[in-house]
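Narrative of activities, Objective 1.

The group set out to show that a structural description can be obtained from nothing but a protein's sequence at a throughput compatible with the screening campaign. Below is one input-output pair from the validation batch, recorded exactly as produced.
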Amino acid sequence: MFALGIGIAAGVVADVVFGDPRRGHPVAVFGSGAAALERHTYSDDRRAGVLHTTALLTAVGVAGAAAQRAGRRHGTAAEAVCVAAATFVAAGGTTLCRTGERMAELLRRGDVEGARRLLPSLCGRDPSVLDTPGLTRAALESIAENTSDAQIGPLVWAAVGGAPAVLVYRAANTLDAMIGSRSPRYARFGWAAARFDDLVNLVPARITGLLVMACAPLVGGSPARAWRAWRRDAARHPSPNAGVAEASFAGALGIRLGGPTQYAHELEIRPTLGDGRVPEVDDLVRAVRLSRAVQALAAGLATVVAVSVACRSGRRVSARW
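Output recorded for this entry:
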């Protein structure tokens, strides 16, 4: 019964120690499979996208459920290993923060070209048009958004539904990154992937906002300003979830995010989030520290929630007997 809590804790520790595998990452394998399937399913309409997304997410969910059931049949330890492996596969917080630190180091050295080469590891913006302030803002916004997407989301769904839920969450997030854009090719085909990703991130994004408020003092930030920016600015962001994470980070750090944002397919004019100064490289470093604190607190809470649920379930079973 305690397999879920043990597995989540072990998966987080594995992510902290190892980070994302450089080769053969299961998420990359899934992405390759999704791209191969797309060659057969693509059509410029929503129905094709719904079928494509449903087929992939169903396959992942069935595989995750089968693996966890197989582990359960072999005892708590085997089930915990299954949950730990799924959590490790889905979590990306350690690599996110390491990349943010590397970006800050390059910018401090004035290596703009190196920072431009690194930026695609964080987000899909066109780095060729960005100078040091632009790269700093892009990296910081990505740290904020992906604190929710790459770590809080996996922890929430692992605590809620174990291996199948966390793997479906990561698959949905990956599909959104692949086909969820508003580009001419994917505006209709990727609609289902984008909307499903919005749905599964509604709760994690708001938990992220609350945790940012709680952890803001650890980086010299303000919980009150984080709440104010979230309440005032988040709804203006094109994403119902990224706006929460980015606005709360901006308020907590006392900076201003948003503005012209160049992607490969279009230029977006993002709304202003926060009412502080333009972010500097030191603010990117603070954002990474804030992200690590939020991730650590979330991991502890997810483990406690999973263990508490197991304890209550155990007491109910005992009461019946």
